[in-house]
Amino acid sequence: MNENYSIYTLQMKSTLIKILFVLLFTSPFAFSQEKDNVDILKIIFNKYYKNEKIIAKERLQLLSFYCKKAPNNEEVLEVISKSDLLKKNADEIKKQIDITIDENWSKEYNTLFDKQNQYLKKKVNACLSFEEYKVVSDRFGENNQRLMILSKPIYFSKTNFALVKVAFYRNIEHNNGSYLLFEKVNGIWTIIDYLNEWAT
Question: What distance lies between CA 144 and its chain's CA centroid?
């Protein structure tokens, strides 16, 4: 009985040590990346909602935010070919191409607007699914509404740089977008380039 108990106790201690090891080494990175996501999201919101009006009294919202993070696909390879900086970090960037991800911006959105940035929140409002956007767009049919879609940020070069695709969907024909290249200096993220700009 005592022998079995001792073996069980050792196994439990071993399991706990493994769990603590994982938490110690992964949590700081995960927290840091989430903070970077929040900072980048704020920059993008401030840039593209700058000229948007506060939504009040049933005013039609012309720019909506898509809830999900768009996966990074093979278009990233084309973007890499157009930038010397990205070419130097190609291997690290390519590892983050994954069309299977299913993530959303809820954590970053909630952190960004938790008792702060309330003026900006009144412009952005709640995010929409594609189906929700289509319902509103089809109802008004003025062809002046857009859905802003952001890709999951790609961090590279010791997380001092980030690449994010920003796309604006209006309808089947009139859409546009580009990749934003960010650099972090002294803890502050800044857009330093626009890559692979396109419009239909």
Answer: 24
